[in-house]
Design goal:
By secondary structure, the chain is of the alpha/beta class. The chain has six helices and six strands, in the order E-H-E-H-E-H-H-E-H-E-E-H.
Length: about 180
């Protein structure tokens, strides 16, 4: 199964991007084809409805990856009770044909305890794009983020956090397989 993960941070050491990379690692262990699109490393142009047929190479690659995916993971830091601007901008570039009937897992990282507002915002956007939200999401906050610093290895993830992430990713992969007709 093809999975596209969109890491929507504009920070080189974002814990949300490291969490996304861990989910990529877990899905690849299950023999899935996983592409991690890091919007910090490959920024997209600003969306404008007046610009049709933009041939920006990163934008074309982003749209192809989203269109060919059987399932999608969206990752964001929580900024001011919402998803990052770079992730919202990326999602504005795509439409229902990129999301329709695909399983979507929302994940977030917050400096506070949890990142519920950004997750809710992402799930609303996914619904409007006709994607199928995974009933669970992953939010890490406060001290939980230490497991996903750039200087930490995946072996250093706190066991209770790792167990929760593995459970949710397993549920997401099952949903994605069912929706793609591979179950």
């Amino acid at each position: 199964m093809k999975i596209t993960i969109v890491a929507g941070s504009n920070h080189s050491a974002a814990t949300s991007t490291r969490l996304a990379a861990y989910i990529q690692h877990l899905a690849m262990q299950e023999q899935h084809d996983v592409a991690l699109l890091d919007l910090f490393r490959t920024p997209l142009p600003f969306y404008s409805p007046e610009v049709e047929g933009d041939t920006h190479p990163a934008l074309e690659a982003f749209k192809r990856a989203m269109l060919s995916a059987d399932a999608i993971v969206l990752a964001t830091p929580e900024y001011h009770s919402g998803m990052s601007g770079v992730l919202k901008n990326a999602l504005d570039h795509v439409g229902q044909d990129h999301f329709k009937n695909k399983a979507v897992l929302s994940i977030s990282s917050s400096g506070g305890a949890v990142a519920v507002s950004s997750l809710t915002q992402m799930q609303t956007t996914v619904r409007n794009l006709h994607g199928i939200n995974c009933p669970e999401w992953i939010s890490i906050g406060g001290d939980q983020r230490k497991s996903f610093r750039v200087d930490a290895s995946f072996e250093d993830i706190q066991p209770d956090i790792d167990k929760r992430i593995r459970r949710v990713v397993g549920s997401f992969l099952t949903l994605a397989e069912q929706l793609s007709g591979r179950a």
